[in-house]
Amino acid sequence: MIGHRDIDLDSIMTALPTYTTVGATALRARLESPLANASELQARQEQIRHIKGVDASRIKALRTILNETEADTQSVADATTDKRHAEYYTQILWDPASTFAFLNRLGWLSELIVFFRTIFLPGVSIVLPLFILAAPIVFYNVISKEPLTLKSYFNLLQTSLKKAMPSVLGKPRFEGTGGALEFGEQFAHVGVSMAMLGASIWNQVSAALSLRAIVADMRRRADAVIAFSAAATELGTLFGIAVTPVTTTDQLGLFGETWNSAAAVRTLMAQAGELDMLAAVASAKRICFPE
User: Fold this and answer.
1) pTM for the complete prediction?
2) What is the domain count for the chain?
């Protein structure tokens, strides 16, 4: 006797091409678990008959969207377990096991964190040196109305920089001696302090640019989940099958909610796989309905 395990399932799956990985998984699972109940078989036949009567071009368009967004949707579902990216996401999101994980669902709060870390902090780091440079001039020429010589300006600037960023050159050796050596040493101290301050600014700016790239990628992946959900929902409506869509349309809120628990997205993907599998079966050119 020939059983279903003796059949070349790979050839059947090739003859019934699915558009998604979850669809292929659903198709293989169905082929490996054949039915023997007549009423259940007839119900499946009626389901396929109904799908064959639906607009094929629309089905193809929706399956194409599922195909194009599946990888990003899967990556969002796997975000917590992906150690390569988890360290990036934790710059914005709380650990799912932490007490404050519920805050991840608040998209506006994540947006505020992004603003603080990518715009506010770099902005402060850029404004600070400008303030240090301009403070002596503003104080003497505008407030106290006293003349400020170049030497006095360097002395004040050096004092300000020492407070903001101490020089690595240590204590001045020619302080109070006058002449070119003292002025040159002051200039060197100011230059080194400004270089260190500039390096600190660049670290803030580069970190902000890196984080903004991460956030842009999070937004793109969240948009893919939304598109995947919309396509699966419409496909389910065409087939007369209920689909549980994602309800959050805020990008960072959706990512944060899935980061806390990916169960909803995984369920959606499994449902989309069933729909893709049914569409693949219904699209077969040579198909019969034995009685």
Assistant:
1) 0.77
2) 1
